[in-house]
């Protein structure tokens, strides 16, 4: 159905092996032109999915390019549902590139980013939400977000969405039935059915949406800002967190950047710590980046760690900082408890009521465990696992769920107000369509293209 595509499937750089993947109805024919070993086309079924030893040559001059192991898989039981050949060659940039080149010269086209997965979708092997989960798997930053993506790949979201769409179809059937008898008002039983089913749809959509916040955190990391006036211990805190927890990605601080981001994994929660203070020590945030930008940063943060030094009296600056964050999710850190105490816990409570307060001595390593425990309870309280809570992790899915929620609410309202049933039908249909865009049943080509553009090449 589609042309034959090829790409390097492994990450760029030096490695033990590299893999070039070919997919399409000419995959085997093209591979046979460049592979010298047994003829792949003539291989028995028993040899399918087994590695075959041979060489890649350039058929133009017969020169060897690399010693390889090839494997072939006949569609439809492949990732793309097409014939697939994978060539395992020596890792490193040159062998994979030269093998890819000779494959392209012999009839394959270079795959676009995500095109293998796109074909898996277009050929009906996975739905759109599952294809998106593939991308999330690749870019997962913590074990938890990996588990959640795997769950989605297995269809957790798709199954629930399909269930809701089934109910909507039932509703449409009820609507159709009463449109056939226009002279009557909606029958009581139809009305009740629509009402009940509509409520069921709404509650299922709401339940899915309630997982989106957790999902977003897992996907993007909890945006966290460390605030406090100079010398209270912000850098020490940052360093202690980085030391005790696995840093996920470390940005190299650029000379022109005044804000450093670090990803850390604290008890399964990915934190994107925006380190305004910096490991570099000119760190009066307000002075350095300006009050407005500091406000902006705080506004965008999901969480603020605010640090006070309780070995000194609170200053105007401490109070100003507290003012800035009173409506945010905050963990208050009263640091330097190893020194004589000048500020009581009550005083801090007055300043920032209803926020958890953790007493620490960062230099002595006291209080950090409690800080992490508090953080975890703040976001994932209860005994439901994170995995089950985060069914929706994707912004696109969330937006569609919000639209679908509005549709079904409109339908329910209209029903209650006795608005003609064909108007209600429109809302139910819209709801059904919006949900279908999640799984890709009702999605347009340009949206599909946009989704797969974000993939990496070779996947
Ligand atoms: P920042 O300016 O807020 O980033 O503060 P720093 O982390 O640079 O710390 C300022 C000073 O306070 C340093 O000399 C730290 O060693 C010290 N400090 C940090 N935490 C503690 C603590 O818990 N107890 C004591 N006694 N000193 C601390
Ligand atoms: Zn500092």
Tell me the CATH topology of the largest domain.
Answer: Rossmann fold
Proportion of strand residues: 15-25%
Mean pLDDT: 85
CATH homology-level superfamily of the largest domain:
P-loop containing nucleotide triphosphate hydrolases
Number of helices: 18
CATH architecture of the largest domain: 3-Layer(aba) Sandwich
Helical fraction equals 40-55%
What's the end-to-end separation, in Å?
A: 19 Å
Task: Return the structural class.
Answer: alpha/beta
Spans with pLDDT under 50 lasting ≥5 residues?
249-257, 277-283
How many distinct beta strands? 14
Shape: flat
Count up the domains: 3
Strand line-up across the major sheet: 3-4-5-6-2-1-7
At the first level of CATH, the class of the largest domain is Alpha Beta
Biggest β-sheet: count, sense, barrel? 7 strands, mixed
Q: Ligands in the structure?
A: guanosine-5'-diphosphate, zinc ion
Topology, please?
Layout: E1 5-8, E2 17-23, H1 27-34, E3 35-36, E4 52-58, E5 63-73, E6 84-90, H2 93-105, E7 109-110, H3 115-122, H4 128-139, H5 143-153, H6 156-179, H7 188-210, H8 212-220, E8 222-227, H9 234-244, E9 246-250, E10 260-266, E11 269-275, H10 285-289, H11 291-300, E12 303-309, H12 316-324, E13 330-335, H13 345-351, E14 357-359, H14 368-379, H15 386-389, H16 395-417, H17 421-439, H18 445-453
Parallel strand pairs: 1-7, 8-11, 8-12, 12-13, 13-14
Antiparallel strand pairs: 1-2, 2-6, 3-4, 4-5, 5-6, 9-10, 10-11
Helix pairs in contact: 4-5, 6-7, 6-17, 7-16, 16-17
Zinc ion (ZN) binds at residues 234-235, 277, 281, 283.
Family: Belongs to the TRAFAC class TrmE-Era-EngA-EngB-Septin-like GTPase superfamily. TrmE GTPase family.
Domain TrmE-type G: 221-380
Binding site for GTP: 231-236, 250-256, 275-278
């Amino acid at each position: 159905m589609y042309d034959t595509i090829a790409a390097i499937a492994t990450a760029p750089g030096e490695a033990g092996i590299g893999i070039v993947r070919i997919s399409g109805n000419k995959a085997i024919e093209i591979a046979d032109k460049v592979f010298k070993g047994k003829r792949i086309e003539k291989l028995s079924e028993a040899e399918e999915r087994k590695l075959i030893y041979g060489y890649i040559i350039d058929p133009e001059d017969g020169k060897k390019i690399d010693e390889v192991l090839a494997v072939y898989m006949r569609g439809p039981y492949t990732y793309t549902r097409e014939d697939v050949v994978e060539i395992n060659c020596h890792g490193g940039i040159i062998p994979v590139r030269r093998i890819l080149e000779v494959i392209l010269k012999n009839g394959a086209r270079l795959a676009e980013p995500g095109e293998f997965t796109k074909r898996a979708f277009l050929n009906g092997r996975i739905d759109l939400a599952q294809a998106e989960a593939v991308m999330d798997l690749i870019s997962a930053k913590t074990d938890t977000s990996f588990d959640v993506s795997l769950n989605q790949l297995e269809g957790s979201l798709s199954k629930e969405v399909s269930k809701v769409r089934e109910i909507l179809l039932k509703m449409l059937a009820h609507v159709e039935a009463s449109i056939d008898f226009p002279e009557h008002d909606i029958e009581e039983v139809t009305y009740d059915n629509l009402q009940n089913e509509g409520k069921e749809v709404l509650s299922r959509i709401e339940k899915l949406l309630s997982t989106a916040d957790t999902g977003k955190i897992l996907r993007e990391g909890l945006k966290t800002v460390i605030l406090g006036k100079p010398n209270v211990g912000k850098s020490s805190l940052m360093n202690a967190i980085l030391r005790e927890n696995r840093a996920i990605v470390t940005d190299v601080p650029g000379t022109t950047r005044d804000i450093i981001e670090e990803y850390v994994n604290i008890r399964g929660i990915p934190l994107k710590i925006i380190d305004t203070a910096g490991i570099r020590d000119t760190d009066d945030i307000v002075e350095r980046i300006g009050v407005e930008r500091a406000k902006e940063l705080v506004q965008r943060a999901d969480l603020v760690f605010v640090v006070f030094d309780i070995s000194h009296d609170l200053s105007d600056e401490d109070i100003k900082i507290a003012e800035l964050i009173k409506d945010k999710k905050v963990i208050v850190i009263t640091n330097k408890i190893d020194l004589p105490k000048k500020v009581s816990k009550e005083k801090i409570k007055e300043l920032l009521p209803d926020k958890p307060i953790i007493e620490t001595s960062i230099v002595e390593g006291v209080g950090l465990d409690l800080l992490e425990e508090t953080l975890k309870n703040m976001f994932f309280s209860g005994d439901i696992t994170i995995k089950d809570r985060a069914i929706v992790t994707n912004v696109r899915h969330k937006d569609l769920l919000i639209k679908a929620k509005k549709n079904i609410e409109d339908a329910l309202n209209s029903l209650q107000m006795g608005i003609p049933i064909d108007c209600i039908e429109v809302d139910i249909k819209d709801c059904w369509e919006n949900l279908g865009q999640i799984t890709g049943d009702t999605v347009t080509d340009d949206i599909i293209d946009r989704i797969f553009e974000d993939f990496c090449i070779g996947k």
